[in-house]
Prior knowledge:
The protein is of the alpha+beta class. Helix content is 27%, strand content 33%. It is built from four helices and eight strands.
Amino acid sequence: MASMGTKRMFVALRPPAELVAELEDFVEATGIARTGVRLVNPAKWHITLSFMPAVQSVLVDALRDELSSLATNTRPLELVLRGAGLFPRPGASTPIWIGVDGDLPGLDNLALRVRAACQRSGARVDSPKRFKPHMTLSRQRPTDHWELWIERLNQFHGSDWLVTEVLLIETTMGGRGHPARHDVVGRHPLSG
């Protein structure tokens, strides 16, 4: 958790509104929400490129500058959301996710470069060494018949998506019973 003088931040890609609506309709049609699974608010759906649990406030401008520089040297890339799975974690929540396909080499390269840009700014990066592009739908799996729900979600194949910007997002943790808030604090158009 971020302490006084620090910000919990991440760099991400967000699908366009029409793709969010497409996926939201598909998820609704599966009926998974009726199983008691709490879904992530669709307004928060994103693909995390780099996570920074405690960025010192004095580093935020340097972080924005690094991301702007990276974005001006990066071409837009085409992605598609499709497939589904979960990350089994014994004794913890088990995220259900929608997969990412398309220009995966370009996306992997972007994630590596974003992580390096964040580190150059002085921010401590806490991201997995092996990038697994995904978009979390829920932080818990259904208790019953979860294989069936993954099979149903795995049938999703979204429309093509041209990624044209990288977002710097600040997370403000909610109190008991209140969800975290995600505020976009930097938009960096890909123009390389």
